[in-house]
Amino acid sequence: MSKLLEINDLHVQFNLIGRRVQAVRGVSLDLNVGETLAIVGESGSGKSVTSKAIMGLIPNPPGEIAKGSISFEGKDLVQYSEKQMQKIRGKEISMIFQDPMTALNPTMKIGKQIMESLIKHQGMSKHDARERAIELLKLVGIPKPEKRVDEYPHQFSGGMRQRVVIAIALACNPKILIADEPTTALDVTIQAQILDLMRDLQKKTGTAIILITHDLGVVANIAQRVAVMYGGKIVETGTLDELFYHPKHPYTWGLLASMPKLHAKTDKLLAIPGTPPDLSDPPKGCPFAARCPHAMNVCTTHMPEYTELSATQKAACWLLDERAPKVAPPETIGV
Ligand code: SF4
Ligand code: MG
């Protein structure tokens, strides 16, 4: 598969008064044409900051890309000016956020909001843009699109609004769609419908998706590859099967154990005890050391390197060092 996006050693920091928060600390990732990559982690792991960096949406100041590159079709977006990024955003790379209400303008008809980007980026005439807006509403499963194109956001339910947001994001046939917790604000049945829709649309349009989520259940539904983030770093990455059936990092084990099971006798979730590290004073060693049940002395003093487990899977954990004691993943994991 050919690479659409290659992130290399990305460091993002926020220079606040009296402290510097190192939100992303050396992230390397790539995205192939047409695939879905999930970035999973708790809040504060750096997943949203990574996606904002791709979109050129890190506010500077206080934010700053201190190091690294984000190569999109061979061009480094880190070097792009705001003006250059405006040609990429919404056209080549689109983003949808958690809350559809904040993404939509409450005083503007739905159709007009879709048309705006078509007129701006594609130079469409008003008439053609309206036709295309109706087509897009149909594509995202909105009934009676000819009528609803002239309605306002408050006339739509939460799930329907998120469909509209997806229609806007896909209006210009972007090569990449970044979805940051796209279903978190919706109730469970609607969540499933939106994920189905995204999967269908991907098949139809070939758009690559970066899905940002804290929820492994969402990942299982849609992603082909997964990157697990913790403390500003990627701790493990692999195919969906590798991460679900052969996870190697204790943090991935913890995430899997805290996932609701389909056939479980109990609905008690095993949350990972403790809190994520303070990234204004990041740990010297493994970011997970303070919460890891398997932590050894070396873990607190030295950051583990990545161990390549297959052509597609790697993890950064001292347990993978040949000198470490053998530890089996807990029995609670598995789908
Ligand atoms: Fe746990 Fe050490 Fe592995 Fe970090 S490196 S996950 S602390 S065993
Ligand atoms: Mg977030």
From TrEMBL:
Taxonomically, the superkingdom here is Bacteria
Residue ranges of every copy of the ABC transporter domain listed in the record: 5-256
Q: What Pfam family is a match for this entry? A: oligo_HPY
Recite the UniProt keywords alphabetically.
ATP-binding, Cell membrane, Membrane, Nucleotide-binding, Transport
Q: How does it sit in the membrane?
A: Peripheral membrane protein
The residues the entry assigns to the signal sequence are: none
Q: Does the keyword Kinase apply?
A: no
InterPro entries under this entry?
A: AAA+_ATPase, ABC_Ni/Peptide_Import, ABC_transporter-like_ATP-bd, ABC_transporter-like_CS, Oligopep_ABC_C, P-loop_NTPase
Keyword match ATP-binding? yes
State the protein's name: ABC transporter ATP-binding protein
Q: Which organism is it from?
A: Sporolactobacillus kofuensis
